[in-house]
Amino acid sequence: MSAAPPPSGNFAYTTLITRASYLAGVIILASTLRKHGSQYPLIVFYPPSLAAPAVRALQSEAPKLNLILRECELLLPPSNVKTWLIAERFTDTWTKLRVFEAIEYDAICYLDADMAIFNKNMDSIFAHAADLPSDWIAANHACVCNKERDAWAPEEWREENCAYTPLSHPTALTQPTKATPESRPTYHLLNSGMFLYHPSQRLWDDMLHFFNTTPKLATFKFPDQDFLAEFFRNRWRSLGWQYNALKTMRYWHDAMWRDDEVVCLHYIVDKPWAGRVGEDGRAGYRGNDGETHRWWWNAWEEWVEAREKTGEDEVLGLVAKHVAKAKGEEYGEQDPDMLAIGAGVQAFAENKAPDEGTEKKSSGQENEKPANDGQATNEGAQRTGNGLLSKVERGHGPVVHPRGSSMMPP
């Protein structure tokens, strides 16, 4: 029996890129969407601070890969809110919320820039939009197994509390664990790498009001992910794992995982373009991701071959600058942003908030932490002509913040 045709409608995909180190990720995401037959555009949100060569590469690829480029201002919490994130690079991800501004579409599927499409057409995701309430999202659970017992993870992140643990093939594809008001707390956590939504001005306004007023903002370790889980609490529908297949699921949840059922693979933690697969077949920060990283590199080689055939040397050079070189090629100076997404990525996830009310044993003073070590602080901001707060933060260029409890402009 042939598969049902993908749904049609005023649909689109969105993604976000804030740093050139993710350029190859966006290109391969778009390339694999198109390879597997997607008929909908990928709207690429990017801030003015994105390096000009990266923008030029995206502009070159736009007509070939059905991209719509949309410049947007970075979004950060109000100036009086200090947040403590797992890693400094997550500061940029607040801006992911801006994809809800694309209100000209009936339904949108957001995809992280570290994803790629395999095996099947991703457009089938839009079938789930038909009966999705206008103020809900559809997404996948966060995997909370934490089998490597990372120190930053909450104590309750264990296999027995993971929404994927009870699942097995083939029912896991169509009968994911439901998040209900009575579910255990970890079942309410979602992974924000992929989500389906109905954009509207009302929804965007409601999100911004919550963003500007909730006292919980300072507690979110994964900015956009924790925000979405809280804002859409009891208003999100779980989807089959195949639409957001975390690469670690291949060996953490082998009872449900099947290689040929993967639709959208999510390269969490270290990124495949930041390191080549070793001669021994090993890749990834623990050496366990050789197979899935090989899939990405196969897609990369297909894109390179296609551009070489048409003599597009400029775009090849622009993108390849942010891709790990083959064995024997000259590396030159290492890009700090590339190091932050490479095999040593876990070293960049050691940020912890100080315990309030505690004192340093050596000096008797309150526990302090350098502002550039995971703390997102907006001190020293300057007023601009439009009344918004702005300043230049390390490596991000102009940043626009909300005005306390007021609304951010679209």
From TrEMBL:
CDD domains: GT8_Glycogenin. One of its GO terms (molecular function) is glycosyltransferase activity. Residues 352-371 have a biased composition (Basic and acidic residues). Residues 352-410 are annotated as: Disordered. Residues 374-387 have a biased composition (Polar residues). This is Nucleotide-diphospho-sugar transferase.
